[in-house]
Write a structure and sequence with these properties.
Elements: E1 3-9, H1 16-24, E2 33-38, H2 44-48, E3 54-58, H3 64-74, E4 79-83, E5 87-89, H4 93-98, E6 106-115, H5 121-129, E7 148-152, H6 153-158, H7 171-181, E8 185-196, H8 202-219, H9 226-249, H10 256-279, H11 287-303, H12 319-338, H13 343-356, H14 361-371, H15 379-382, H16 390-410, H17 414-429
Parallel strand pairs: 1-2, 1-4, 2-3, 6-8
Antiparallel strand pairs: 4-7, 5-8, 6-7
Helix pairs in contact: 8-10, 8-13, 9-10, 9-16, 10-13, 10-17, 11-12, 12-13, 12-14, 12-16, 13-14, 13-17
Length: about 425
């Protein structure tokens, strides 16, 4: 059986040596090992050059789908295996997967991905809620996770290769669905496994999770109009509620705050994407623009109190920032009424970081001080504003109030447990 292996890489210099050394130790040696460097800006190319592999470099980052297609066009073996650059393949990995491809109706086989790290609450959460395997039993899965697979090259070519419009997420689900629609089956082999060398922080964890699912919601037209978009916001609270229930009942109380925070993070990421699509303009999420948008919103709240509509001095690229801070202002009191005083401030700090990569405790503190002042921020719903999406703000506030009431009625002592979990996240984030 002739098998070639490719490893798509983007800024993978730290983990690539472990991946390549494991690939070279396979009991079934691949005909060729190809590294596709997808526009890395670190030492990925230099590291790969130390090993007996072929390297192809993209001049810029094109995304995982494009890297996969480059490999499939370059390799000519009957079977093509792939492994993510942060995976250590077990020595029998390739041998065990290829044994599952003897039936010509089987298009591909995938192995199990085991998490190597559980050092932080973020890695523990990923290991519980972002598993990339189908359990401990051999099965015919809905799709194969892209981290470690072997496919018949010809069937991938027949299916039209990977959809490069999907970038670096959902491409594995999409290609598997097309293969199955062409009459092929898939096999999951749990005894062919790889160890996952990934460590997350709050920013990488939540944004990876959101990106995993964005393509599905985009395909289902959830960003096409305001009505569909608001259904997505409701779905975010439903997802967070399900995860929180699982972790509460399972005794994983350390994870409760991340489950809770996810509802807000995903809603803001959805809003950012929705506004960018509607305006055909990327959202400005810089620190200086964040301060200016917040101060602009606060200033015109006072300046226009006796006017019919609010004004702004900020450009349209700051529309997302205005909505971000507006929701922080209107939900601050709702959170304070249910939790200890610093909880709302931690939520604001963690959302600034996880949604926009902003680490500024002073900005978060200022926003919450203003939010908790004796002001009617609900007036933002009553007047017009060139950037604020009133339906989004109203639906989010309503959803939060209903959800908080539901949580405290359903889960005994949830407020205290959420506070303890939030403090753990705060200590790791080191704001």
């Amino acid at each position: 059986m002739e098998v070639s292996l490719y490893i798509p890489c983007f800024n993978a210099a730290e983990t690539l040596p472990f991946c390549l050394e494991a690939a070279l130790r396979q009991s079934l040696q691949p005909k060729e090992i190809l590294v596709v460097d997808d526009g890395s800006t670190d030492e990925t190319f230099k590291v790969a050059s130390l090993y007996p592999v072929r390297i192809i470099r993209h001049p810029r980052n094109k995304g995982l789908s494009a890297a996969r297609n480059t490999a499939l066009k370059e390799l000519n073996a009957e079977y093509v295996a792939s492994a993510d650059a942060d995976c250590i393949l077990h020595p029998l990995w390739l041998e065990k997967l290829t044994q599952r491809l003897k039936d010509p109706v089987v298009a591909g086989a995938g192995g199990r991905l085991k998490e190597s790290y559980a050092w932080s609450v973020f890695d523990i959460w990923r290991g519980r809620h972002m598993k990339q395997d189908w359990g401990e039993e051999l099965c015919a899965p809905e799709f194969l996770f892209g981290s470690n697979t072997v496919f018949r090259r010809e069937v991938l070519l027949e299916a039209g290769l990977y959809n490069e419009n999907l970038g670096s997420n959902y491409e594995d689900v999409d290609i598997c669905r097309r293969l199955k629609s062409n009459g092929y089956t898939l096999v999951y082999e749990p005894h062919a496994y790889a160890d996952h060398l990934r460590c997350d922080d709050l920013l990488s964890l939540f944004n990876t999770y959101w990106n995993w699912h964005r393509a599905y919601y985009e395909d289902q037209q959830y960003y096409s109009d305001t009505g569909r978009f608001l259904y997505k916001i409701q779905d975010n609270f439903g997802l967070a509620n399900r995860l929180l229930g699982e972790d509460y009942q399972g005794g994983n109380h350390l994870l409760l705050y991340l489950d809770f925070l996810l509802a807000f993070h995903h809603s803001f990421r959805d809003l950012r994407f929705f506004i960018a699509e509607a305006n055909r303009l990327p959202a400005d999420t810089g620190l200086s623009s964040g301060w200016l948008s917040f101060l602009d919103l606060d200033f015109f709240y006072h300046f226009c109190r006796k006017r019919r509509d609010y004004s702004t001095l900020m450009p349209r690229s700051c529309a997302f920032l205005h909505n971000f801070f507006a929701l922080q202002l209107v939900t601050g009191k709702a959170l304070q009424q249910r939790f200890e005083s610093d909880f709302a401030r931690m939520v604001c700090r963690h959302l600034l970081f996880s949604v926009m990569g902003i680490k500024d405790a002073q900005l978060a503190r200022k926003v919450m001080n203003v939010a908790l002042a004796n002001r009617r921020w609900e007036d933002l719903f009553q007047k017009g504003h060139p950037y604020l999406l009133k339906e989004f703000l109203q639906e989010s506030l309503k959803g939060l109030e209903v959800w908080l009431r539901h949580l405290t009625e359903r889960f005994i002592g949830i407020e205290h447990k959420l506070m303890l979990s939030a403090q753990t996240v705060e200590q790791i984030c080191l704001f």
